[in-house]
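Let us work through a complete example step by step.
Step 1: write down the sequence.
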Amino acid sequence: MRNSIYSCLLAAFAVAACAPSAAQTPKASNVNPDAGLVAEFTKKVDAYVKLRNSVTGYAPDLKRTEKPGEIAVAEKSMAQMVRGARADAKRGDIFTPATQAMFRRLLHSQLTKGGGEGADNKAIIKDDAPEPKEVPFKVNADYPKEAPLSTVPPDVLLALPKLPEDVQYRFVGKHLLLYDAKANLIVDFMLNAIA
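Step 2: predict the structure and record it as tokens.
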């Protein structure tokens, strides 16, 4: 009897010694699992804006005008300078495969959430977005003036990484563009952003 009590105590101590202490137990993390991808995406967008600003800093200043011709000439000049500076740019430089997966996940959650909000967001995007045949899917291409610019619902914008002032998200069908409004340029794009 004494041996069995001794054996039970020894086994209990062995189990207690092998169990992790409170200090060793991993705690639940409050860190956003996408934080690294968001930081990488933001860094690439900021680098684009810095490049655009550096090359367009040499362009003559456009005075405040209501003349569409002068605005168009300034936009085309700016776009040409940006194209020259990023002649090697290609699809996926900013929307990397990992970033695209994150965007699809974030968009899916906003377009399928309950209470009708997801359906409303999807309807706004669908009703507003131009057809894919209206817009060239090419990095550094001009966004056609005759094609409408889609509206991105506010709660969808809040779910996506924040962009600098002149860079915008725009939908074309179910695809997502990174659009430079200042240069009227397609910076990058991802196909099938919306399932």
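Step 3: interpret the result. DSSP finds six helices and three strands in the chain.
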